[in-house]
Predict the structure.
Amino acid sequence: MLHPDRLFPPDPTIRSVARRLYERVADLPIVSPHGHTDPRWYAENEPFADPAALFVVPDHYIFRMLYSQGVKLEDLGVAPRAGSDIRTASDPRAIWRRVAEHWHLFRGTPTRLWLEHAFETLFGLRAPFSAATADLYYDTIAEALTKPEFLPRALFERFNIEVIATTESPLDDLRWHRMIRESGWGGRVITAYRPDPVVDPDYAGFRDNLARFGEITGEDTFSWPGYLGAHRKRRDFFRSFGATSTDHGHPSACTADLGADEAEALFHRVTNGNAAPDDAELFRGQMLTEMARMSLDDGLVMQIHPGAVRNHNPSLFAQFGPDMGADIPSRTDYVRALKPLLDRFGNERDLTLIVFTLDETAHSRELAPLAGHYPALRLGPAWWFFDAPGGMRRFRDLTTETAGFYNTVGFNDDTRAFPLIPARHDVARRVDCAFLAELVATHRLGEVEAHEVAHALAYGLAKSAYRL
């Protein structure tokens, strides 16, 4: 299934350059500075339950496509909210067969590329996946998962992962990270600080979250100084477990830089139930600037992931909760939205602010020019819906001429599906090598320089940008 020249240019001269570039980066260690794998996997190091639990149930890339064609989430093993009367499929083989029956839906998608890479390289499966081969695949994978070499830590080492970051809430006790540390295992699994539950007034249970935040930190989190102090304490706690970054999943890129009295008054409005309609957005924006201020003190890199209309399907959200494949990209403004933060901190060379987008039109119009100017700003890679060969190529086309390569941060796999991490990095390395090969073939870049850039894109930029 896996052609050695997949994703390389069809022109034989350019393809040969891409091959040479790829050969030098294909086996570099994986640096995964942002993602959503479960630290419990590495802490307990227990076998993965079955093929469906490994590949299907945790991966919204798979079940959102099937849902779009009428397959119910409960028939794919996705659990509903507590108290629901929806009955979830419990037979993993039946779930697996259902995916195989609908495999044609993934033609041309990156999901198919990732899965076929895992099927062949991990399990030696080369027959085309289909309803006819579903049981062969299931039995082969299920048997492999019983072996020691397929335990999470063994796969971590087999994948040549140098470091992987998970993402946790300030309310998380990081027990699994503590267990990893105390186990003596040498794999580097670090956390990242995702403060959305106590920063976003629209987040479910916001006031209860603030109360819990105060209990954890011993601060009065319903006072402005105590609230900011609680963040500083939790950031230090996360840093003690290896965190080098924060992550902010706001609906927009809005930032604000209010005076101290204005900020405190805003805080009291959003926490006391007296907020105006626009106060939640203003508070989120103010908190991005506050987080930038804290990052200058403690060195944590900031990531902003804006532009998703979360839980666009209300009935699905009511039944199953968030992260069910119903988050949809929207148009996002960056030039004006980021200006208050950049006015205050954009010229700081000790701050790194990595901005992602789900609005591709913003790359060439706004983000690349901004990153090509402000020392603090870097461009996150093609993300989520655009973490695909076409999206990665468009990212390079839209940003390189203005921001260059070194105002970007390499590749983030951003996945919940652990066995697909090598596949996603392999796709990124192939696409970047194909792009660089065209620059070499058109005499815009020497091949020696292209090798240096390929290494940076595959490995070096992520390490330096995330201070790893």
Summary: The longest strand covers residues 161-165. The chain has a mean pLDDT of 96. The domain at 12-48+149-465 is CATH 3.20.20.140 (TIM Barrel). The two ends are 35 Å apart (CA to CA).
